[in-house]
């Protein structure tokens, strides 16, 4: 640990360390407590809360002054966040060669990551993957450090919102495989225009080892070329014959690869979900081939994908009060918002879109909201200042400043039987708080 971080021990060295923990609320016996520092908190001041469980403490030299009376080995470093990444990278280098896969993109990365985890597990592989939303400069190192040494495959989701973050994540993860789901205008306030976003995402590709390879989702190759980014030597592109082909007819998805074909039923006629599934199937097949393992049948992959459940708040279908509610409230950018609207429009029946503001779009926010295509939507409920621009474009629109006002409206509002209701917004809007108002007695259950 000292060599990985460039720090020094005081108070001796620990006999053993079972892992690294940064949160006192979920701290495990035997872990070393690593104190992080932020604008409104200082983890160094919380070390006493876990001292009875910890095997050691790790923190910056200034913060470690609070630990003078704690009788534990203490590793002093110049920057504890940097040290966390360095420790994770050192552990990553002990993992199976060819087995570290990084997933990123402007949209779909969590769905693709969970699909990959689902399929590889169903095929009997020893796979570890990011949990929840641990995809940033804190979450990525913790996800890596939590990977068992004997994992055949470690799937790490990488998310960014500022320039420079991907370069550091790429350095920590040093991926053998990179999957880029799609590139679009997202987090523009922190990342810049589309070309800048593309170049930032591409830093993950540039970290590939000599034998590494990547799989690119629909449109990614062209985005990279437009931004002046050269493709890696070993790149599998969704639009080519190397990748699994797909066709979606209503809710029926047909996958094809070489001489094989397989079909599965989707809960929704969602083209972006279908494209993600084809990308996942492509990655699974080529991973086996490159590991010199006999690849599974396409039908096996399709069966595993059919059993996949979307994470909460990501195109998850709920049934209540005779309505079909599509909960896609976890996050939003212009590309994912339009994909969700197109999916809603493809359904038959009364279609309701409940939309909240898309965040972090910078000076382009008004234009991105105004240009959303509202085709075949019967009723529109809008939440937030940016969404107000759409209220004049639809004959049956209701606008509210915040979720509280929208919830009050929905408490007495009635939609026709068999309505389809979409909820979509950026996380900060809190659109999931409308679910109780929609379901009256609470959510009945996912399908």
What does this structure look like?
By secondary structure, the protein is α/β, with parallel strands linked by helices. It has 3 domains: 77 residues, Udp-n-acetylmuramoylalanyl-d-glutamate--2,6- Diaminopimelate Ligase, Chain: A, domain 1; 212 residues, UDP-N-acetylmuramoyl-L-alanine:D-glutamate ligase (3-Layer(aba) Sandwich); 124 residues, Protein-Tyrosine Phosphatase, Chain A (Alpha-Beta Complex), CATH 3.90.190.20. 30% of the residues lie in helices and 21% in strands. It is built from 14 helices and 22 strands. The strands form 5 sheets. A 6-stranded parallel β-sheet has the order 9-10-8-11-12-13, with helices on both faces. A 6-stranded mixed β-sheet has the order 17-18-22-19-20-21.
The CATH superfamily of the largest domain bears the name Mur-like, catalytic domain
Radius of gyration: 23 Å
What is the β-strand count?
Answer: 22
Strand content: 15-25%
Strand order of the largest sheet: 9-10-8-11-12-13
